[in-house]
Specification:
- The chain contains eleven helices and 20 strands.
- It is of the alpha/beta class and 397 residues long.
- Bound molecules: S-adenosyl-L-homocysteine.
- S-adenosyl-L-homocysteine binds next to helix 7, strand 15 and helix 9.
């Protein structure tokens, strides 16, 4: 018997618009003893069916919707969703990308599940109790679809603790995998990916389109790549003919992988510098020394974790953008990003505009950038559009 949750009056609107989350404050009453991670039905205040989804006992998001129909949530259901998700990526794979996000959680109507493909390795990350309960079904389907691949689990996101889940990682299926995988991107370069110990599922596929943009504009330019991780942007800049590329990151491991990537791709290490330093400190030092670059890439980690830290996070973005603008050469380009889902594009643009005033420069928006197309956004769920970027041309006054 599927247990039920009844919403307060007038709280059904977002579900009728197919937003996939039910917040605890929208709930009027729920059946007794609903098991964490079980399937529940959500009803409106007149007991009409609205949606079916995973119940999260301890989360603010009490239900993550799987379906707006009364359908069975079984192997067949998950197989259909997974095959559909993979279909949506076929063009990317055909066009020279061996690294692709195959399943993007809410974006593919599979909340709590991310699967990234790196060559012949699937890196899987589960973040909710509900999805964790069906892990064996998901694994079974992936094995059926990719019998010759290795499947590695990276379910070590902090949010799992709230769901009452341990942080786990390790090989689930297939042969052991290399410490570094070199993964072809846009038919141009092979980017180092560390599935076992790297960030997230191993790397940042979401920046593929923006890295391509850098490739297009980098010829004969000096580039500063801030928060460089394993050097994806740098490889694209070098491939595009950049005169020099300087990488800044606090992680030794990431910088080492970035170095390995330059050699692996037969690009010129003589044009590169790898600087282990806090980006905020480094930018301040560069401002002090009057150093300028033709292009600066600014791809920081998430500054805004929750609504409570919005204001502080915004200040952080403004500060770092101001500093970066001061070291862009006259007429040069700043590629600046925010991966904070709580900050929308309009707010980000405003913050970067305010940073330009503080930096005493004129800033022109050349292009708007975003998470690449395999990081699908569910239209009714703006939170899944988390990564945005601005290509800004800087003129010093
Ligand atoms: N642009 C990268 C992804 C960046 S991820 C790509 O395209 O693949 C963010 C990186 O910022 C991580 O490698 C992390 O080690 C680094 N980092 C976080 N805080 C930092 C700081 N204060 N100074 C320098 N690097 C930092």
């Amino acid at each position: 018997m599927i247990k039920t949750i009844v919403l307060n009056e007038d709280r059904e609107k977002s579900l009728l618009r197919h937003h996939p989350w039910v917040f605890s404050k929208a709930i009027k009453k729920e059946d007794d003893d609903i098991e964490n991670g079980s399937i529940v039905d959500v009803l409106d205040s007149n007991n009409n069916f609205l949606a079916r989804g995973f119940y999260s006992k301890n989360s603010q998001i009490k239900v993550r919707v799987l379906s707006f129909n009364k359908e069975n949530i079984d192997r067949e259901f998950f197989k259909k969703r997974i095959v559909n998700a993979i279909d949506a990526r076929s063009l990317l794979i055909e066009n020279g990308n061996d690294g692709v996000r195959l399943i993007a959680a809410e974006g593919d109507f599979l909340p709590g599940l991310i699967v990234d493909k790196y060559n012949d390795v699937l890196s899987l990350s589960i973040s909710t109790k509900g999805m964790d309960k069906v892990k064996n079904i998901i694994l079974d389907i992936l094995k059926e679809l990719y019998p010759n691949f290795s499947i590695y689990e990276r379910s070590d996101v902090k949010t799992r603790k709230k769901e009452g889940l341990p942080l786990v990682s390790g090989l689930l299926y297939g042969k052991d995998i290399d410490d570094t995988l070199f993964v072809l991107e846009n038919n141009l370069v092979k980017i180092p990916i560390d599935v076992k110990n790297g960030h997230k599922t191993g790397g940042y596929l979401d920046q593929r389109a923006s890295r391509k943009r850098l490739y297009e504009i980098a010829k004969n330019k000096s580039v500063l790549n801030c928060f460089s991780y394993t050097g994806g942007f740098s490889l694209m800049a070098l491939k595009g003919g950049a005169k020099s590329v300087h990488n800044v990151d606090v992680s030794d491991n990431a910088l080492q992988k970035a170095k390995d990537g330059v050699v692996f791709n037969h690009l010129d290490p003589g044009r590169c510098k790898f600087i282990k330093k806090d980006v905020f400190l480094h930018l301040r030092d560069l401002v002090k020394d009057g150093v300028k670059y033709d292009i600066v890439v600014l791809d920081p980690p998430k500054f805004i974790e929750s609504a409570n830290t919005l204001k502080k996070g915004c200040r952080g973005y403004q500060d770092i953008n101001r500093l970066a603008m001061q070291i862009v050469a006259d007429g040069g380009i700043l590629l600046t990003f925010s991966c904070s889902g709580l900050m929308d594009l309009a707010l980000f643009q405003k913050i970067v505009a305010d940073a330009a005033i503080e930096a005493n420069v004129d800033a022109q928006l050349i292009s708007t950038l975003r998470q690449d197309v395999d990081h699908v956004v569910a239209l009714p769920c703006p939170e899944s559009f988390y990564l945005k970027g601005l290509e800004v041309r800087i003129k010093h006054r």
